[in-house]
Amino acid sequence: MYLEEKFESLQSIYTQLINDIDFDKPSFSIAIYFIIFNPTFWNIVARLEYHTHFLSNFTGSARSGCYTLAGTIFLLGLCRDVYFKKALADQPTSPILDDDMITVTGRFCVIIGQVLVATSMWKLGITGTYLGDYFGILMDEIVTDFPFNVSSNPMYQGSTLTFIGYTLLEGKAAGLLLSFMVYSMYYFALKFEEPFTAMIYAKRDEERANRKKKAT
Ligand SMILES: *[C@@H]1O[C@H](CO)[C@@H](O)[C@H](O)[C@H]1NC(C)=O
Ligand SMILES: *[C@@H]1O[C@H](CO)[C@@H](O)[C@H](O)[C@H]1NC(C)=O
């Protein structure tokens, strides 16, 4: 096949997928709302906590503050997942995605995604998973074994993979767009979170070094 023809067939797939999305369904908009709102919310609250300690103060301790935020993020995540599912249920099936190979790929993505999310949560614990560092609850050292040796951010990558997998299982074009939004939000969240977390740990290491100096 000539390159031009390949490009045209790719373009027709793309056009077809877009045509298979029903943008008017309210569940689609609500899913988008949660996808955008959730990471924005937890980043704003975590930064506020870091600078003012308002949650630790309100709940009485850093640990209770972190658990409160963890519970809230978990519930918001549940809402997002429920609406993602509902949004897909309200959409027409895309003929291009209605294929056995795609269903198998989808199942595979969901399994890999869930393994990444579950194992990283297991390794990090609740405070490690849910922004404990902003509350001054730091990990003793960086976790480097599985799943962190196969994925730079298993929580976000696993979550994205799960959404893609579910989309392929259901064969709904709208899910591809929603999954891409999930991916984009995590991408921006990481740009915002990673330097800040690095700063928190750098500060801790500096303090540790100073304490050692004083002790000797
Ligand atoms: C909360 O803030 C008040 C007033 O700033 C302060 O007196 C109190 O010690 C704080 N409580 C905690 C648990 O940090
Ligand atoms: C990742 O670490 C696990 C142990 O936690 C090990 O069994 C596995 O082989 C490692 N994988 C890679 C790709 O290094």
UniProtKB/TrEMBL annotation:
Q: Mind telling me which Pfam families this protein's record contains?
A: PEMT
Q: Which UniProt keywords apply?
A: Endoplasmic reticulum, Lipid biosynthesis, Lipid metabolism, Membrane, Methyltransferase, Mitochondrion, Phospholipid biosynthesis, Phospholipid metabolism, S-adenosyl-L-methionine, Transferase, Transmembrane, Transmembrane helix
Predominant cellular place of this UniProt entry's protein:
endoplasmic reticulum
E.C. number, please? 2.1.1.71
Listed InterPro entries: PEMT/MFAP, Phopholipid_MeTrfase
Recorded hits in PROSITE patterns, A to Z, give:
SAM_PEMT_PEM2
Q: Which residues cross the membrane?
A: 27-45, 173-190
Task: Name the Gene3D superfamilies on file.
Answer: 1.20.120.1630
Output the GO biological process annotations, alphabetical, semicolon-separated.
methylation; phosphatidylcholine biosynthetic process
What is the membrane topology here? Multi-pass membrane protein
Q: Where in the cell is it found?
A: Endoplasmic reticulum membrane; Mitochondrion membrane
Q: In which pathway does it act?
A: Lipid metabolism; Phospholipid metabolism; phosphatidylcholine biosynthesis
Stretches within the membrane that do not traverse it: 26-46
Those parts of the protein on the Cytoplasmic side are 80-106, 192-216
A cellular component term, taken from the record's GO annotations? mitochondrial membrane
An MF annotation (GO) of this entry: phosphatidyl-N-methylethanolamine N-methyltransferase activity
Q: Where does S-adenosyl-L-methionine bind?
A: I111, I112, G113, E193, E194
Question: Which reaction does this enzyme catalyse, per its entry?
Answer: a 1,2-diacyl-sn-glycero-3-phospho-N-methylethanolamine + S-adenosyl-L-methionine = a 1,2-diacyl-sn-glycero-3-phospho-N,N-dimethylethanolamine + S-adenosyl-L-homocysteine + H(+); a 1,2-diacyl-sn-glycero-3-phospho-N,N-dimethylethanolamine + S-adenosyl-L-methionine = a 1,2-diacyl-sn-glycero-3-phosphocholine + S-adenosyl-L-homocysteine + H(+)
Ranges of the Lumenal topological domain: 1-25, 47-58, 128-170
What's this protein's function?
Catalyzes the second two steps of the methylation pathway of phosphatidylcholine biosynthesis, the SAM-dependent methylation of phosphatidylmonomethylethanolamine (PMME) to phosphatidyldimethylethanolamine (PDME) and of PDME to phosphatidylcholine (PC).
Write out the similarity annotation. Answer: Belongs to the class VI-like SAM-binding methyltransferase superfamily. PEMT/PEM2 methyltransferase family.
Q: What is the designated name of this protein?
A: Phosphatidyl-N-methylethanolamine N-methyltransferase
List the source organism.
Answer: Zygosaccharomyces mellis
